[in-house]
Amino acid sequence: MPGWHVWCGSLVENPGGGFSLFYSCWPVSQGHEGWVTHSQIWRAEGPAPWGPFSGSQPVLVPDGNTTWDADNFHNVTVKEFNGRYYLYYTGNNGNGDWWIHRNNQRIGLAVADSPSGPWSRSPAPLLDISSSSWDSLCIANPSVVQTPGGGFIMIYKGVTAGDLPYGSKVLHGMAFADRPDGPFRKHPEPIFQINGSRFAFEDPHIWCESGRFRCLMKDMAGLPGSCPRATLLFESPDAIEWDTAQFQLVATPHLETPEGRVERVDRLERPACFHYREGLCLSFAVKPLGEAASYLVFAPNFLPTRS
Predict the structure, then answer these.
(1) pLDDT(307) > 50
(2) Is residue 78 part of a domain?
(3) Which strand ranges, in their side-by-side order, compose the sheet holding 72-81?
(4) Angle CA 157–20–90, to nearest 5
(5) Taking CA atoms, which of 2, 52, 169, 227 is between 20 and 30 Å from 82?
């Protein structure tokens, strides 16, 4: 999309064939950090999970209202459950000040009978902050999975209130529901904690495979055997207990060109794993070095090591 930063890819298969890619985008003129004040959610279509994608159309854009999510739509993840489509996202409102928008982040939901819409947006957040808990300042980055028992689990990022505007710790938590549209009940304690770390992980993406839960996370701390901003794969039997010392290194902030040359990028973030007939397709959002626009990349044959 010339003139736009592209981020947060999420894939679903279309009922009539082909695939829909949902993604966040915002004008390059706002700089990369404009994601928190100017992000929108759009959709494009392609013949395969890795594209090529075309026919981009807006899905959720600012509408001039005064709702909790009036100004910004980001962190899109779309799931199909029982023939309906659920679009989870981070929304906010504010006055143009970066930190006010960031600290007003909450998690919302839009529902449709088709990937092409129309989308019905919930008037209130699907998940809100808890003023006396670890996620008392803002919440974002929802990722949802259906359990083998038929319930639903959301992993999300939260920031603890503290010295403003940043707050205190950046942590992650779980919430549980009987339906994909909630209500979601929060697990009381955060997960993926590292002693002494204020901001250990980022960008969770969860799924269930062979009765075990798997989660991709971006390593912000640089764990032993990893490196800062690498993408790691963790496993859990119940989506609550995660051993942060046991992981598979999936990716570092580099890309390999078709000629075999390895190039460093500024950020390789927002990992997402899409299950299709032949396997798993892994996607990332990429911020290149310098001022060039961000974009998405896809790895069609992601095969994590089985435990």
Answers:
(1) no
(2) yes
(3) 72-81, 84-92, 106-112, 120-121
(4) 20
(5) 52
Q: Is the residue at 255 inside a domain?
A: no
Please give the structure tokens belonging to residue 19: 């695939």
Instruction: Evaluate whether residue 261 is within a structural domain.
Output: no
- For the cut 80, the answer to whether the pLDDT of residue 303 exceeds it is no
Q: 57: domain range?
A: 4-190+272-299
Cα–Cα distance for residue pair 217/203, rounded to 1 Å: 6
Token pair, residue 296, equals 């998405």
pLDDT (mean) for 104-110: 98
Which amino acid is residue 234, in one-letter code?
F
Nearest to 159 by CA among 102, 221, 100, 239: 102
129: CATH: 2.115.10.20
Of 20-24, 157-161, 206-210, the one with minimum mean pLDDT is 206-210
286 closest CA partner among 295, 299, 298? 295
pTM above 0.90?
Answer: yes
- With helix as H, strand as E and coil as C, how does the chain read? CCCEEEEEEEEEECCCCCEEEEEEEEEHHHCHHHHHHHCEEEEEEECCCCCCCEEEEEEECCCCCCCCCCCEEEEEEEEEECCEEEEEEEEECCCCCHHHHHHCCEEEEEEECCCCCCCEECCCCCECCCCCCCCCCEEEEEEEEECCCCCEEEEEEEECCCCCCCCCCEEEEEEEECCCCCCCEECCCCECCCCCCCECEEEEEEEEECCEEEEEEEECCCCCCCCCCEEEEEEECCCCCCCCCCCEEEECCEEECCCCCEEECCEEEEEEEEEECCEEEEEEEEECCCCCCCEEEEECCCCCCCC
Query: From CA 287, how far away is CA 28, in angstroms rounded?
Result: 12
The two beta strands, 170-177 and 84-92, are: unpaired
